[in-house]
Amino acid sequence: MNYFRATFYDQYTRLTKEEIEKKLTPVARAESATPTSEVLAGKTLKLILDDGPTLEYTFASETLTLQENGSETVTAPYRARELDQIVMFTHMIPGTVRGYNVVVDQRTNLVTVFEVWFCGFAEDLREVWRHYMFGYVDTGTSAPKARHSLTNRIEGLGTYWKDDNGREMLYFFPSVFWSSFVELSDPRGGITLTAPSDFIKINDKYYIYSRVEQEFSGTFTLEVIDLFTVRHIGVRLGFDLNDDLDYQVYCGSGEVTGRSTSLAPLADYGTEIPGDERLTAQLDPAIKGMRPHYRPRFLHLDYTQEQVDEIVATNSKIFEGRNIMSSFHTMESTDYLAGMRFLLRFDDGPAWEYEIIDAEHLKWRAEGESEWHEEIYQAFEPAKDLIAFSHICTGSKPLRCLTHAIDFTNALVTCVDAQLGNGRKPWEVGNKAIFGVLEREEGPTPPAVRRHGFTTDLVGKAYAWIYSDFMQSIHVYSTPESYSWTIMLPNGAGGWMWSSPCLYVKLRADVYLMSWTEDACNGMQGVIILNTNIMHDAGFGFGMSDFEGDHALSVSTIGAHARPLAGFDILKYFEKKRK
Fold it and tell me: Taking the model in full, what pTM does it have?
């Protein structure tokens, strides 16, 4: 069986400072697919910044000269873009790995300057860091008191964009300092990525949005967004998958796709992170360019196959204890199946017989097999006469975990068939959904053709999932094959984000199965059954767990209450792409 999702995670080359300097020589001028602005040609600008140097610029049509705090003048190529009264220009500084991106409001003479440089993390320097500064253009008159400022005014916003370079994007802002995005124009499609982000208010019409693709390409993106006309201008700086310089300016137009409801305090702009001093330290203003970060590749051990085999053999925890997603709001387990005997037959796949001993123990075997295998299991009834249960297949290698959702009313079943190992890592879980029917003497006759099936009903939905008093998460179902989650801070604001490939299955008109695998993260699988009538889910986790430092094979129960948070009208963009 092929469990490998090859398109979700790309492996990027680690780049040294010397390699980056070579790629930036001679000094690059940003590329552009369409003509850019020459509004600055022949002008001079003196920028006074509250938290930074004085920048004095003189512009020609394609080059500029710059003095930083009166130091030696340097000359560099630049590009500029206009968006009504807003001008944005970008340039690198010769002989360095840094540059400036400047946003000027020509009406107010207020400016926001992003100094950017290739800094990276650990030994990989390809990631772009940034330091933003607020200030004004010195016009020889008294200095204005107003400034651009951080904002949460666009938290929850969703947008679609089509740019002059052919790129089509979806953006989602469920956090005060993070965002997610989907590149619809990527021929592979269906991939949701997340990135630490800045949200700055110019005025009620114009906003500045920036992100850096940590853990992936390291590329920095900066945009000015006009929400009156839904247009934007932007710049990208980084290296692509082939390690070629990706430095471009662009413009585009789009649509507002909707909003996920904000649960943050009105005055929370993401400058402080309540409740955890270790996380608050990520915003230490003394560390120039530091962003909040979430780097799973440094958080989780990259287990070898030998280590996986040893842990499975010596420290398998099957429905033992709790994890952070199984506290307080896990649905009560059920003994609905106790004493039953039935067969689950899947189309073009296996058929498994089951004898359920009691509420925690069962026997199973493949059809035609003589010997039974006994396992521990747990079961939930998330909807009337619809039972979800899960168990491992002891002794299978790679270790297999079966999670079934059986509709006893309609004699239908969906199985999420999972195993350790996804073709990329031996410890990451790979899975797939298979569909079939329930056969038992006491039940209804199985349908000949009708089955559960994949669905797009959830695409665009947003929910807040409350696992406990200290664990809440916002799910945005952002594509038919992937989603993002946002860890909510103790005050209700959206915080760190990550994303995963996933699958959605419709079990009934008001009941859905969703399963995800945390690729490029902790490698775990989750399977939940969502009942939209009671706004509750019930399900199971499976994978290699290092919860609280205990390296174990884990199968656990998970569950949460949900609050719907409106959502986004985005399915039409995927339907358009697939025509």
Answer: 0.93
